[in-house]
Design brief:
Elements lengths: L12 E2 L2 E2 L3 H9 L5 E6 L13 H16 L3 E2 L22 H17 L4 E6 L6 H11 L3 E5 L2 H11 L13 H10 L21 H4 L18 H23 L33
Parallel strand pairs: 3-4, 3-5, 5-6
Antiparallel strand pairs: 1-2
Helix pairs in contact: 2-6, 2-8, 3-4, 5-8, 6-8
């Protein structure tokens, strides 16, 4: 596969783990103005009786692989355990503290910078990892080049592109989106039951206080019966397309004429499509 500049992009993963050698990373880095690393962050938590505990990690890795197939990024191995405290009532769920996850991502970013990769995109596969937004906020304010992907708007665009019937509010956990992605990428990991496990609980205002078990006995909130492998394929394709705006934004020269924040009146044309730059998302 080749990028828009005509140079070859090597597919960098087999399953959830990258297969690059250090020479592969060196070669790719020599061909780009700024190296971008992509870190999938998943979880290890219940996903009903038909999806594996590693679902969020598999989803994050699938998105990261799709991105790495389209853009010259340094694909990292996933963080597989994160903040799943709301799922503690189900056997098999394992969590770390938000403080630990914050430190792990910051340490990874620091290590990358020491090896010449100054930009990190965190690909989050678990909605409960609220702290990742804080990591990116703090790092960006301190001058680091970092982003969190996908945003809510990216998921909404992907949902519409793939013909997903369930709204993002209803499709909260082990629903149409996650089941569709795994039907496409890892169908061997699914067990029977998704066709008959639909459950809706749109009013979850006390989730952080009471946990998931207050809203669902099965662990499912969504409509997995509507999932399909084709929807999973289209979801990933749309997310990879949305990543283009992030890549352009993060690799533009902050001191050059292409800087989208430069108000000096330069006549240089920006290589960032303003219509594709992700908007600031209000977490409230």
């Amino acid at each position: 596969m080749v990028n828009s500049g005509g140079s070859e992009i090597r597919l960098t993963a087999s399953g959830p783990l990258p297969t690059d050698t250090t020479e592969d990373v060196r070669t790719r880095g020599a061909g780009v103005a700024r190296q971008v690393a992509v870190l999938p962050v998943g979880s290890f938590e219940q996903h009903g009786r038909f999806l594996p505990l590693s679902t969020d990690t598999l989803v994050a890795c699938a998105i990261a692989r799709e991105v790495a197939a389209a853009f010259p990024v340094h694909l990292l191995p996933p963080v597989t355990i994160s903040c799943s405290h709301e799922h503690a009532a189900w056997p098999g769920t394992v969590s770390i503290s938000s403080v630990t996850l914050h430190a792990v991502v910051r340490d990874i970013a620091d290590s990358l910078r020491r090896s010449g990769v100054d930009t990190l995109v965190v690909i989050n596969g678990h909605g409960g990892n609220y702290v990742l937004g804080n990591v990116v906020q703090e790092s960006s304010a301190a001058g680091a080049n970092m982003a969190l992907f996908p945003a809510v708007e990216d998921w909404e665009a992907a949902r519409e592109a793939a013909g997903v019937e369930t709204s993002l509010l209803t499709d909260m956990h082990a629903g149409e989106i996650e089941t569709s992605i795994l039907l496409h990428t890892d169908p061997e990991y699914l067990k029977p039951g998704y066709e008959t496990s639909d459950f809706v609980a749109d009013d979850r205002r006390h989730l952080l206080s009471l946990g998931m078990s207050a809203y669902t006995k099965s662990g499912v909130i969504g409509r997995p019966s509507r999932a399909s492998a084709e929807k999973g394929k289209e979801l990933l394709a749309s997310l990879a397309d949305s990543f283009g705006a992030y890549f352009s934004l993060l690799t533009s020269d902050p001191d050059g004429p292409d800087n989208p924040n430069d108000s000096s009146g330069s006549s240089g044309s920006s290589n960032v499509d303003a219509s594709r730059v992700p908007p600031v998302v209000d977490p409230h």
